[in-house]
Amino acid sequence: MTRERNKVSTSALAKMLGKSSRQLFTELEALGWIKREEQRWSLTAKGEFEQGSYRESERYGRYIVWPDSVTEHRALVNPEDRLTGARGLGLKSGLAASRINQLLADLGWVRPWLKGWQLTDTGEAQGGVQKEDIHTSIPYVVWPKTLPDNTVFKRALREFGLHMAEVEQCHGCRAMDGHLLRSEAEVKIDNWLYLAQIIHACDKPLPVAEQARADFYLPQAGLFIEYWGSEKSPSYLADKMRKKALYEAHNLAVIELQEVDLDALDEVLPRQLRRFGLAC
């Protein structure tokens, strides 16, 4: 009786597999586990071998039941159905796919490669599978849907969440790479650059005779980044205009970010960086 209680109907099995009842009945028939006889489904010898049996119901009459372990049967589970990409992982965690890939790179499970992502040996050990877009040939990686239960991945997500909570309260304004910054906004920009694996310096003196410092400097491209906040004090506005004039007068490459850009860094920064030959 215990084994019988652990059995489920074909419709319940379909739900467990994420399929429609009609789809599963069709698959079981194609596998030779069941056959249609006199307007009802019957077990074949193969179906009985797979531990299918019958159950009687006053409401439904005789119907077929299966052990719940059948959900792991290779014939019924497409390996691809157990995998998901960075977008799928992001939907579960509330992060953009680009941020998920950056966190995975920070763990050493993937690395940037040919405008996409290449699986590392460490990532393969976590169940990652290398793929390639059939249209663009850009490489990408898919992961087990169970990755959110992975201890290391969970810890990375948790630490990222805790860090962002601290950033929102501006506790010391320290970025993920250890840089100590002046504002929550600068921390968000620094974290984005760090996770995108872009080498950067903070509070960098401009290469001019006048005393002035840039918020960020990207040495690969000789590129500066300035964040202009919403502060309206006369001293802040004067310093802002002075620095703008220095960038223009000395023909220095600079990306200027506004407060409105902070919630769209995944869109704004890649587009701006490409103008200066930096892909991310």
Write the layout of secondary structure elements.
Elements: H1 2-5, E1 7-9, H2 10-17, H3 21-31, E2 34-37, E3 40-43, H4 45-49, E4 53-57, E5 61-67, E6 83-84, H5 86-93, H6 97-106, E7 110-113, E8 116-119, H7 121-125, E9 129-132, E10 139-144, H8 151-169, H9 184-195, E11 201-205, E12 213-218, E13 223-228, H10 234-249, E14 254-258, H11 265-274
Parallel strand pairs: 13-14
Antiparallel strand pairs: 1-5, 2-3, 4-5, 6-10, 7-8, 9-10, 11-12, 12-13
Uncertain regions: pLDDT < 50 for 5+ in a row? none
Gyration radius (Cα, Å) is 28 Å
Main beta-sheet strand count, sense and barrel state:
4 strands, mixed
Please report which band the strand proportion falls in: under 5%, 5-15%, 15-25%, 25-35%, 35-45% or over 45%.
15-25%
Total beta-strand segments? 14
Number of domains: 3
SS-based structural class? alpha+beta
Protein name: Glycerol kinase
